[in-house]
Design a protein that fits this description.
With 315 residues, the protein is an alpha+beta fold. The protein has helices spanning 4-15, 65-91, 98-104, 123-133, 157-172, 187-206, 220-226, 230-246, 249-260, 265-272, 276-290, 297-314, and strands spanning 19-23, 28-31, 41-48, 51-58, 113-119, 140-144, 147-152, 176-180, 213-215.
C-alpha cells in the first residue's frame, strides 16, 4: 500500500520544497529541512484526520504554504480518514452503508482481528510504528479514545499482538499492552470485539495482571470475579484480607506464578527459579496461614477468587 510517508517524500522530491510536519506531542512525522535552515521558517497548523499538526517550511517558500497544506491534508484524508471515520461510525453505533463498508473494509469477510493498543509513551509515535509494520497490508490503524486500534486479517493473532508490543517497547522504551477479542466477520462483530478488547484492558488494570497481551476468551475468569456482588466481595475480604496483607512480595509472586502455571509445581518452580522443594515449602506456608491448599482444585478456585478480589481492592 502506498503509505503517507512515501507520499511526503515524493512531494518533497517533486516540488523541491523542504518542509517538516510535527504532531501535537512534538513527534516529527517528516522533515527534510536542513540544520542551516532552522532559523528561517514559517509554520501553519494543518489537520491530519482527527489530529492537529504543524507544517513548517523555509521562508523562501512561504507563498506555497496554503497549497502545500491543501495537498497534504487531502492526501491524508484519501489514505486514512475515510476508513478511520467509517470505523469510528461503527464503534459509535452509527449507520454505515453496505457500499461504504465494502469499499473501506473489503477484507472483513475473511475473518479479522481488532487489536487495542495502550501505551504509556507517545500514541502518535506508537501509531507510526504500527503503520510501518503493516504498511504493505490492508490493516487499518488509528487513534481512538486515547488508544490505538489496529484492524486487519492476521493468521497468527497472538504472534502479531506480541510483534506490535515488542516493536513499540523496543523503539519507545515504554510500557505497552495489547488486547483483542473475538474474530470479526461482519459489521456487528467490530463493535463487539472492540468492547471485549477494552474490557480486557480494564480487567488487567483492576487486577494488576502482569502479562502484556490479553485475549478476551482467556480473561473470562477475571470477568466473573469482577462481576461478583459487592456483598460477596466484602465477605471474601473479611475472610482473607489480613492474611494476604501479611504475605511478603515473595509469597505474592509465588501465588501468581503458581496460578499462571495452572497449579503445576514443576512449571511454577522453573518460572520462579527455585527448587521444587522450596516451592512446596511456600505452598505449605500459604495453606497454614489461610487454611486453603491451592494444590487442591476446589480450594484453589475459592482462594484465587479471593486473591483477585483482594488485588482489585488494593489497586
Amino acid at each position: 500500500m502506498y503509505n503517507f510517508q512515501s507520499f511526503l517524500s515524493d512531494l518533497d522530491l517533486n516540488t523541491g520544497i523542504s518542509f517538516s510536519i510535527r504532531l501535537e506531542d512534538d513527534t516529527v512525522l517528516y522533515s527534510s529541512i536542513k540544520d542551516d535552515q532552522r532559523s528561517d521558517r514559517v509554520s501553519e497548523m494543518i489537520n491530519l484526520g482527527a489530529s492537529k499538526a504543524i507544517l513548517e517550511l523555509t521562508e523562501e517558500y512561504k507563498n506555497c504554504t496554503s497549497l502545500l497544506r491543501y495537498t497534504i491534508e487531502n492526501k491524508y484524508r484519501e489514505i486514512f480518514s475515510m476508513r478511520e471515520q467509517s470505523l469510528i461510525d461503527i464503534l459509535e453505533g452509527k449507520d454505515i452503508s453496505a457500499d461504504k463498508l465494502e469499499r473501506n473494509f473489503p477484507f472483513l469477510a475473511k475473518g479479522c482481528t481488532l487489536f487495542l493498543v495502550s501505551v504509556d509513551g507517545s500514541r502518535y509515535e506508537a501509531l507510526n510504528i504500527v503503520r510501518q509494520l503493516y504498511n504493505e497490508s490492508e490493516a487499518v490503524s488509528m487513534i481512538y479514545d486515547d488508544r490505538i486500534i489496529v484492524l486487519g486479517v492476521f493468521e497468527e493473532v497472538d504472534e502479531h499482538a506480541r510483534s506490535i508490543k515488542d516493536s513499540i517497547v523496543s523503539d519507545l522504551y515504554c510500557r505497552c499492552n495489547v488486547s483483542y477479542g473475538s474474530t470479526i466477520y461482519n459489521i456487528k462483530d467490530i463493535k463487539k470485539s472492540y468492547e471485549q478488547a477494552n474490557e480486557c484492558l480494564i480487567l488487567s488494570k483492576n487486577f494488576g495482571i502482569k502479562e502484556e497481551i490479553y485475549f478476551y476468551d482467556r480473561m473470562l475468569f477475571e470477568k466473573i470475579v469482577y462481576n461478583i456482588t459487592e456483598n460477596v466481595k466484602q465477605e471474601l475480604l473479611h475472610r482473607f484480607r489480613d492474611k494476604f496483607n501479611f504475605f511478603d512480595n515473595e509469597i505474592i509472586n509465588t501465588i501468581e506464578e503458581f496460578v499462571n502455571c495452572g497449579l503445576n509445581i514443576s512449571d511454577a518452580a522453573r518460572r520462579l527459579y527455585v527448587h521444587r522443594n522450596t516451592l512446596i515449602y511456600r505452598l505449605d506456608k500459604i495453606t497454614k496461614e489461610t487454611g486453603f491448599d491451592i494444590r487442591n482444585f476446589k480450594e484453589a478456585t475459592v482462594f484465587i477468587i479471593a486473591f483477585l478480589v483482594w488485588k482489585e481492592d488494593n489497586m
